[in-house]
Amino acid sequence: MPNAILRVNKVPDALADLVSSHYDLYEYLEMGAEEFNAIANDIQVILASGESTVDAVLINQLPNLRLIAVFGVGYDGVDTHAAFQQQIQVTNTPNVLTDDVADLGMALMLAASRQIFGAQRFIENGEWHGKPYKLTAKVSGRRLGIVGFGRVGHAVAKRAKGFDMPVGYYDKHPADDPECTFFPSIMELADNSDFLMICASGGPDSLKLINHEVLAALGKNGILINIARGSIIDEPALVAAIENGTIAGAGLDVFASEPDVPQALLKRDNVVLTPHIGSATQHTRRAMAELVLGNITAFYAGEPLLTPIGK
Ligand code: 8YV
Predict the structure, then answer these.
(1) Which of 49, 76, 104, 226 to mutate to test the pocket of ligand 1 (most atoms within 8 A of CB)?
(2) What are phi and psi of 169, to 5 degrees?
(3) With CB atoms 3.0 to 4.6 Å apart as the test, which of 131, 176, 190, 248 could cross-link to 217 if both were Cys?
(4) Main-chain dihedrals φ then ψ at residue 225, nearest 5 degrees
(5) How far, in Å, is the centroid of ligand 1 from the Cα of 169?
């Protein structure tokens, strides 16, 4: 059986080039049904990204599939239940991107609260000649609430301590971290936070966790930051909260239906938007690519995978 790999979407070309120099790489999105059927039996590995959908329908069309290698830490698009049922392993790229994602979280928090982009537009529009920029909201020393206290959540908390911010968090279980306060519900966390930063995993368990009630609890001085998945926020509720002043602002790297961003969020001084760039530095994307290739190499060598997802 040849070493055939199916790229389902969005994995960087540099990684695809590396992979195709060692293995036969097929482009799922560029294939017609006839071509797909002709190679379906040869595919042992799927190469996916954090945003890819690898559902049971695709998995069940590939009888010799043994590995789904995800370029990203989030694997909410992969039907892991269907994969594990067929003895298919799944790998992701944890750790190597934690710093970048946490850095972006801090950048969004600072930029939204201090209105960095609004202030830049103010200069660019020539408005500084008439009046000073409006006063904004302080970051240092104010309360940060983190939703999802995993690797990225901890990295954000570590950075926030440098800003003298009291840190609270919500997760399924309290963590062993006496410097951060556990809140048993998101409502309580939101009620006790000036900034609410979403660092949780995507998927059905976190779907629309941040709804109208949570935004109301965050309140008119609160700022919401999302560096995780758009699915975690009820986006229409967020748009309404921004339009009505229910919250003070937002910093968003992820959206419910990327690359579409609600029109109502654009061009506001209190809303900072980035196009899902949490892990998108040259350094980290190289490390992620090496990890993906390492997992694929280990798979074909019959060795233990570097970063398998537990069943
Ligand atoms: C994407 C991500 O995987 O790690 C994740 O979960 O969302 C990102 O790093 C990346 O954009 C590649 O498509």
Answers:
(1) 49
(2) -150, 155
(3) 190
(4) -120, 135
(5) 23
> Structurally, how many domains does the chain consist of?
2
Domain housing 35? 4-92+282-301
Whether the ipTM is more than 0.85: the answer is yes
Instruction: Give 17-67 pLDDT, tens digit per residue.
Output: 889 999 999 999 999 999 999 999 999 999 999 888 999 999 999 999 999
Can you give the pTM of this predicted structure?
0.96
What residues flank ligand 1, with Cβ below 6 Å?
10, 49-51, 71-74, 97, 276, 278-279
Nearest CA owner, ligand 1 atom 6: 74
User: Do 210 and 163 sit in the same domain of this protein?
Assistant: yes
Q: How confident is residue 2, by pLDDT bands cut at 50, 70 and 90? A: low
Measured from the Cα of 74, ligand 1's closest atom is 6
Residues 6 or more apart whose CB falls under 8 angstroms from that of 87 comprise: 66
- Using only the alpha carbons of the chain, give its radius of gyration: 21
Q: Which residue has the tokens 């302080």?
A: 138
What is the 89 CA–ligand 1 centroid distance (Å)?
19
Q: Residue 259: is the preceding peptide bond cis (ω within 30°)?
A: yes
> In ligand 1, which atom is closest to the CA atom of 71?
3
Of all protein residues, whose CA lies closest to atom 1 belonging to ligand 1? 50
The verdict on 138 and 252 lying in the same domain is yes
- Helix ranges restricted to H, 179-234: 186-191, 212-218
Name which residue sits closest to atom 7 of ligand 1, judged by CA.
Answer: 50
Instruction: DSSP letter for 41, please.
Output: G
In a domain, 75, yes or no: yes
Strands (E), 100-192: 144-147, 167-170, 181-182
Residue nearest to atom 9 of ligand 1 (CA): 72
Task: Calculate how far, in angstroms, residue 52's C-alpha sits from the geometric centre of ligand 1.
Answer: 9
What are the catalytic residues? 229, 258, 276
